[in-house]
Design brief:
- The chain has 375 residues and is α+β, with helices and mostly antiparallel strands.
- Helices cover 55% and strands 13% of the residues.
- It has helices at residues 3-32, 35-42, 44-47, 59-69, 119-129, 134-159, 167-170, 179-206, 211-222, 227-231, 248-259, 315-321, 323-328, 333-374; strands at residues 74-80, 87-93, 96-102, 109-113, 265-269, 278-283, 293-297, 304-308.
- Helix 1 (3-32) crosses helix 6, helix 1 packs across helix 14 (333-374) and helix 6 (134-159) crosses helix 8 (179-206).
């Protein structure tokens, strides 16, 4: 068995094993690419508010408004998404989560969103876990993603032309041929042209499944180091502090805005048990989750314990935190999302066209055997 035959054998069986999961993950990723733009159009009455050109309401005020709407739920976090956008109070009760939208200037209740019934959140859960328990689904998705990367590499090795004169023929589609040849050419050509972008999307996606991938990226760009140590939240002793008369969460939010006045998005978490701290974050651009700055505050007096502004983070951590933006194409705004959408769409077709090639050859081989037997 020659080298290329071995590669073809591996490519075939790995493709058959992972094909269905790769298709599901790719097509759901494709759908999710423009979820913010679609929601802005279809849900604009509760995603947008009039810019009052005044400070946002304090997190505690929105927390109280949420408690009036859902008395049994506890607020875990408040997110401010921009000057002309609604704020969201993320609440939970037992195993149920509920997201409440408010006008961040007036406190007016706008809408509730249940992640278990929201279309795009369901699509995201399919993409991440195949709607299975996360401890099972993430490994199936992660394993299929690793196989997909191997398939991209083995596909290029398998179909790379031996002579320079064959390059054009190998990586183009003969549209005048029969449909089986078009399918074969499409599988080869599309796989080749999207290989780099698809590999980037796949590798960045693995960071959400396996922590060691993010650790590897961190160590690569930092030439070593410990990501867990840099991102570790401080440990506090609440017995040595007395509560401030002003809500500590509000103080933390005010200080974060003061530290990052030009930011468009902010979030602040609520501590609920002993040892919990207040965690805040700021992002330069609306609906862009990169270049984030993080701050940690004491839950009783709102005193700053640790600051991690973006410009002071290590290069490795900065790159790791770019993963979501790179994975979704968000890092390049609309053009990046179009690229990610196209790459995901073409990637979803690879298992289909590959299966058609395998099935056609299998059928052809079976017919030959039947003819030999008949003779």
């Amino acid at each position: 068995m020659g080298f290329k035959k071995q590669v073809r054998f591996i490519h075939k069986w790995l493709g058959l094993i992972s094909g269905l999961i790769v298709f599901i993950v790719s097509i759901t990723g494709c759908i999710f690419c423009f979820h913010d733009e679609i929601k802005d159009i279809t849900r604009k009455e509760w995603r947008f508010v009039q810019d009052h050109n005044k400070p946002f309401l304090m997190p505690s005020a929105l927390q109280e408004r949420a408690k009036e709407i859902v008395p049994k739920n506890k607020a875990s976090m408040v997110s401010y998404y921009g000057r002309n956008r609604s704020a969201i109070v993320y609440t939970y009760s037992g195993n149920e989560n509920l997201y409440l939208y408010f006008n961040p200037y007036t406190g007016k209740y706008l809408k509730s969103e249940n992640p278990e019934t929201d279309f795009f959140i369901i699509v995201e859960y399919i993409h991440l876990y195949l709607l299975l328990p996360d401890y099972i689904g993430k490994h199936l998705v992660g394993g299929a993603t690793i196989i997909f990367i191997i398939l991209l590499i083995s596909g290029i090795i398998q179909w790379w032309p031996k002579r320079k004169s064959d390059i054009k023929r190998s990586f183009s589609i003969k549209w005048s041929a029969k449909w089986r040849r078009i399918n074969y050419d499409w599988h080869n050509a599309s796989g080749f042209y999207i290989s780099i972008m698809a590999a980037i999307i796949a590798i960045t996606g693995l960071t959400f499944t396996y922590e060691w991938v993010g650790d590897g990226i961190y160590k690569t760009f930092n030439f070593g180091g410990d990501k867990a140590l840099e991102t570790k939240a401080p440990i506090i002793d609440t017995t040595k502090f007395k509560a401030n008369t002003l809500n500590a969460v509000d103080l933390a939010f005010v200080k974060t805005v003061k530290f990052q006045p030009e930011s468009e998005m902010y979030f602040v978490t609520f501590p609920h048990q002993k040892g919990d701290i207040i965690n805040t974050g700021a992002y330069p651009n609306t609906l862009r989750f990169d270049h984030q700055s993080n701050y940690y505050f004491h839950p009783l007096d709102g005193k700053l314990i640790k600051s991690a502004p973006y410009h002071k983070k290590s290069l490795g951590l900065q790159v790791v935190e770019l993963n979501y933006g790179i994975h979704t194409g968000q890092i390049l705004d609309l053009p990046g999302k179009i690229i990610a959408f196209t790459a995901s769409l073409l990637a979803s077709a690879l298992p289909v066209t590959g299966f058609v090639i395998w099935y056609g050859r299998r059928k052809k081989s079976k017919n030959k055997k039947q003819k030999k037997t008949a003779n």
